[in-house]
Amino acid sequence: MAYICQCCGETHEGLPLDIAFEKPGAYFSTPARQRKSKWKLSPDACVLGGKRFFIRGCLFVPVRDVREFFVWGFWAEVSAHVFERHQALFDKDGTQETPYSGALSVERKECYRGMDTLPITIRFSGANERPRFSLQPSNHWLCRDQHNGITLHRVHEMLHALFPEHF
User: Fold this and answer.
1) Other Cβ atoms closer than 10 A to 124
2) Looking at the predicted structure, is the pLDDT value of residue 37 above 90?
3) Long-range pairs for 90-93 at CB < 8 Å and ≥24 separation?
4) Distance from CA of residue 48 to its chain's centroid?
5) pTM, whole model, 2 decimals?
6) How does residue 1 score in pLDDT terms, banded at 50, 70 and 90?
7) What pLDDT, in 10s, does the model give residues 73-125?
8) Closest CA to 65 of 152, 136, 2
């Protein structure tokens, strides 16, 4: 199996082991004509109207049969304090920082059903690395996947459900 990478445009063998969202889900809840004036966007942090704060991070799901991880590149809504700590520590080692809380911000599409607002724990990483997100315990399928791991077959199923024209 091969796929065309949406980032580099090249063909790669196997299955991609990551999915990244360019913007928080809340961005798409803002009317298109208001987005430019209401949002301050960067690749790793976003602010809506000076009152809502979002950071980008990674949620790792073990892929048992290859001993690697499937990585979800999510956005999380966080408090102003967490946002400020993220900004202050982004180019520094934040691994000794106390974990923080947040909630996923995912588009409200059927294929992402139930993911928006899932509570997470945020752990800052090394310099210039995105934070690591861990789902707080729940019965949501993504939480079960993160806790129990998945197979390559499950990766293919997810990719096909999300991108049926490519997988």
Assistant:
1) 25
2) yes
3) 90/44, 90/127, 90/128, 91/127, 91/128, 92/127, 93/126, 93/127
4) 18
5) 0.90
6) low
7) 999 999 999 999 999 999 999 999 999 999 999 987 777 788 999 999 999 99
8) 152
1 in any annotated domain: no
| Mean of all residue pLDDT scores within the chain | 91
User: According to DSSP H, which parts of the chain are helical?
Assistant: 25-29, 32-38, 80-89, 141-148, 152-162
Tell me the Cα Rg of the chain.
16
Any domain includes 6: no
Which structural domain range is residue 29 located in? 17-162
State how many domains the chain has.
1
d(CA 79, CA 76): 10
Residue 42 lies in a domain: yes
Residues 8-18 as b/e (b if ≥16 CB within 10 A, e otherwise) read: eeeeeeebbee
| Separation of alpha carbons 48 and 39, rounded Å | 5
Does residue 157 belong to any structural domain of this protein? yes
Closest CA to 120 of 138, 135, 132: 135
- Work out the angle at residue 44's Cα, subtended by the Cα atoms of residues 124 and 115, and round it to the nearest 5 degrees: 80
Q: For residues 82 and 59, give the distance between their C-alpha atoms in angstroms, rounded to a whole number.
A: 18
